[in-house]
Amino acid sequence: MLKRIIITGSIALLAFAAGPRESSATPDLPQYRSDVHVGVTSCAGSTCHGAATPFEKSVVLQNEYVTWSQKDSHAKAYTVLMNDASKRIAANLGLANAHEADICLDCHADNVPANMRGQVFQISDGVGCEACHGGSIRWLGQHVGVRDHAKNVAAGMYPLEDPVKRAELCLSCHFGDDNKFVTHRIMGAGHPRMSFELDTFTAIQPAHYVIDDDYRKRKQVANGMQTWAIGQAIALERRVDALLDPKRGMDGIFPELVLFDCQACHHSLTEPRWQARPSTGLGPGVVRFDDSNLLMLRVLVTALDAEKGATLARQTTALHKASTESVEAFHTAAKALKETTGDLVAMFSGHSFGSGDIAKLLAGLLGEAKSAEYSDYAGAEQALMGISAVVSAAAEMGMKDVAETAQDPLAKAFAALAKYDAWDYAAFRSAVESIPVPN
Ligand code: HEC
Ligand code: HEC
Ligand code: HEC
Ligand code: HEC
After folding, report:
1. Taking every annotated instance into account, which residue ranges of this chain make up the domain Cytochrome c-552/4 (predicted)?
2. pTM (2 d.p.)
3. By C-alpha distance, which of 33, 181, 28, 180 is closest to 112?
4. Is 10 in the pocket of ligand 3 (CB under 6 A)?
5. Containing domain of residue 294, as a range?
6. Residue 250: phi, psi to the nearest 5?
């Protein structure tokens, strides 16, 4: 897993909350809209976004292309489809090759239909600017020098500053949607495991923009805790949707295995490591639903509404129990959870996350760590990314001491999770438990 570096020296900034927003049921994502994607080359001019170094007097950095092409793995997402790992995956799946298969291109490139590809569009650019920012045919001309973001959005620019919209977009590839999905069969063919946390992944992409006064004038800025929360709510929604989708939820007599904890099945048999995880209520030898998003949501919801948090915890345990009974019981429990969590995006969007939430969220996460709830890798990984999001938000709000005292434990925790197959739970737990919670 990638390590997140938290900058502790940043100036104190006020916490901004995004206004209440509805999550859209059918995401209006760049890949599915009708705007022509002109091509990365059209963004990369040296006086546009292809400058070698940031422009001092400009509102945007203007070297975004250089950051993307040199440091952002999205720029090589297409070329990886030609490497040995992809060749093996393609061969195992019976595909002629990976770089021409829609099943791979849909996530590893800006795979819009032929009639939506402009003259300089190249599929080999991978996940290019317009795969995230939207097909630019209607805004390319007008956005140059124009600071009217709303006008650009009206002309088809995707509003990535909105954490809800951002989560929907990133997760469409980092988890999948009903058009594209990495099934256990694709994993079995050799695809790497996927994990995602919106605030952390936004930071490590790496960011090709700076949030300064000028940015705040033009765009909404969500607090990192809010970004984390909204990302978790939408990730859970996607996971439950996949579970309940007749096309994706089952594979023959088995449920779709990517929805379950990988290490419930994939681990060494010579080193027994089973231990109870209290809130699952499950005994040994049972395949666990991957509840890592639920573990995070429980902490988040409890901090905002204790009663609802308790309901969520109860329904999570009920879901685990139902998974040992029947598909029907499992689906019924999943629907109950969907009902309870349906308003979380609105709840998190409407909450003004601020310094008062730091202690509550850290205490919640550390408390669950102490109750051995993060003994599955997926849960530990989400907890660590969540803690990083909270600590990073503290740093941004000027709570330097919180960020500084957490640096060393966070580094140790990231090191403990570095090797997926040989992660060190004891080291992870003691590192996390040594993070001080501010009063
Ligand atoms: C639903 C979206 C999705 C689909 C479909 C998909 N991938 Fe991926 N793939 C990803 C994401 C996201 C990652 C990065 C995972 C991470 O590091 O968190 C990735 C990573 C990879 C990697 C590792 C890249 C590296 O830098 O080492 C390979 C290889 C790969 N995919 C090949 C394929 C092939 C071949 C197919 C088609 C059979 C395919 N993928 C289909 C989303 C997808
Ligand atoms: C994986 C998704 C992704 C890709 C690919 C991507 N961006 Fe971005 N970009 C973002 C996000 C997220 C933001 C921050 C939210 C915002 O300001 O809209 C952003 C912000 C920006 C900004 C706004 C800076 C500001 O101050 O308002 C510019 C300009 C930009 N990107 C240009 C580019 C260019 C040019 C490319 C291609 C070379 C590119 N981006 C590729 C996700 C992406
Ligand atoms: C069109 C599909 C697509 C979209 C949209 C997308 N990604 Fe990705 N992302 C990928 C693929 C594919 C990879 C793996 C690339 C590789 O390693 O070659 C990846 C890799 C990454 C990585 C590197 C992960 C690692 O383990 O190395 C980060 C971080 C990331 N994406 C963040 C984001 C964020 C944040 C967003 C939303 C703003 C986003 N992505 C949107 C497809 C996508
Ligand atoms: C219910 C048990 C179960 C779960 C949960 C599960 N798998 Fe599997 N996995 C299997 C089985 C069974 C195979 C096939 C083994 C074989 O062919 O020998 C397999 C095969 C694989 C392989 C191919 C291994 C090889 O030797 O080539 C990969 C990679 C893989 N799974 C990844 C994952 C990932 C990633 C997850 C979680 C997202 C996951 N699995 C969840 C049971 C599971």
Report:
1. 47-134
2. 0.95
3. 33
4. no
5. 222-439
6. -125, 155
Residue 137 falls inside a structural domain: no
- Calculate what percentage of the chain has a pLDDT beyond 70: 94
Does residue 317 form part of some domain? yes
DSSP letters, 238-272, are: HHHHHHH-TTTSEETTEEPGGGB-HHHHSS-SSS-
* Confidence band, pLDDT 50/70/90 cuts, at residue 423: very high
How far apart, in Å, are the Cα atoms of 129 and each of 43, 204, 271? 8, 17, 46
Q: Counting ligands in written order, which one lies closest to the CA of residue 258? A: 4
Give how many domains the chain has, as a whole number: 1
Query: What residues are paired with 176 via a beta bridge?
Result: 181
Picking from 254, 172, 227, 193, the residue whose alpha carbon sits closest to that of residue 378 is 193
Say if 326 falls within a structural domain: yes
Residue range 113-141: mean pLDDT, rounded? 96
Nearest to 237 by CA among 116, 119, 346: 346
For ligand 3, mutation pick of 127, 202, 417, 420 (most atoms within 8 Å of CB)? 127
C-alpha distance from residue 196 to each of 12, 167, 174, 203 (Å): 28, 10, 6, 12
Q: Which residues contact 251 (CB under 8 A, 6 or more apart)?
A: 183, 184, 185, 257
**Ligand 4 residue neighbourhood (C-beta within 6 Å):** 184, 187-188, 193, 257-258, 260, 262, 264-266, 287
Instruction: Return the closest-CA partner of residue 191 out of 264, 293, 89, 329.
Output: 89
Taken as a whole, the chain contains a residue count of: 439
